[in-house]
Amino acid sequence: TEKFLSAGVLPCLILPYSPAATLNSIIFNTQTPLNLQVAAGEEGMITCRYKTSIFNSLQWYKQLSNARPEHILTSVVDGILTKNNIKVSLNKSEQFSVMSILNSEIQDSATYFCAVETRCV
């Protein structure tokens, strides 16, 4: 049985309320691959790359068809976090995160999003 994972791109444009807002306050997210098919029981991986100089945290979300996004995990520091069959790694210096769905099941079929939160400076 095959399942289908879809990585949505969640572009973020954050402009702090400040007359001195600079290009450094703009965040660009890209996710690859955009579409991923994984056989049940296999691992699926989605990479999120971002560009910002004011990183606070990175969140991953799962969205089922016709539903609101559901928060999966938030990463603040470099390393690996796990929740159920989801594993998320964060590399702040290289500005990317990888979300892996381990031992995938049909219930994992969804659109997945990453989002970067900045801190106010």
UniProtKB/TrEMBL annotation:
Record-annotated Ig-like domain positions: 19-121
Keyword terms of this UniProt record: Adaptive immunity, Immunity, Immunoglobulin domain, Receptor, Signal, T cell receptor
Pfam families, A to Z: V-set
InterPro entries linked: Ig-like_dom, Ig-like_dom_sf, Ig-like_fold, Ig_V-set, TCR_variable_domain
PROSITE patterns linked: IG_LIKE
Example GO molecular function: peptide antigen binding
The keyword Signal is annotated on this UniProt entry: yes
GO biological process: adaptive immune response
SUPFAM superfamilies in the record: Immunoglobulin
Keyword flag Signal: yes
Highest taxon in the source lineage: Eukaryota
Cellular component annotations (GO), alphabetically ordered: T cell receptor complex
Full protein name: Ig-like domain-containing protein
